[in-house]
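About this split. The held-out portion is used to measure sequence recovery: a designer receives only the structure tokens and must propose an amino acid at every position. Recovery is the fraction of positions where the proposal matches the reference. Here is one held-out target exactly as it appears in the evaluation file.
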């Protein structure tokens, strides 16, 4: 399932260079935009998904507690991605996990 976006992107890039068409470029930009959208919805605090999760938790808990819960969820997501990256030897997943971990460091220091 995680390799599917890479396969789709590969096909779109190949079709763009094979057909040299504007449609291929539009498809490539649409797929890239979709991948960025999905990545941004990961529930880790530096991204919008973390802010959405914190906003959903704030009515149930205090703001600082909702922030801590969101930080833990983001850390667990990053740790899971890192383990998956090592297991599947996927460099892209490793970069994603490390980005989430390092981007959330300023939030951890609050």
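Reference sequence for scoring:
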């Amino acid at each position: 399932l995680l390799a599917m976006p890479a396969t789709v992107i590969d096909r779109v890039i190949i079709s763009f260079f094979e057909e040299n068409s504007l449609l291929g470029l539009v498809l490539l930009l649409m797929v890239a935009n979709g991948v960025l959208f999905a990545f941004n919805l990961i529930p880790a605090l530096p991204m919008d998904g973390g802010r959405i999760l914190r906003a959903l938790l704030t009515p149930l808990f205090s703001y600082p507690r909702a922030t801590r819960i969101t930080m833990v969820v983001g850390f667990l997501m990053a740790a899971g991605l890192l383990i998956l990256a090592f297991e599947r030897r996927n460099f892209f997943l490793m970069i994603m996990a490390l980005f989430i971990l390092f981007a959330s460091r300023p939030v951890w220091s609050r």
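Annotator remark: The chain has six helices and no strands.
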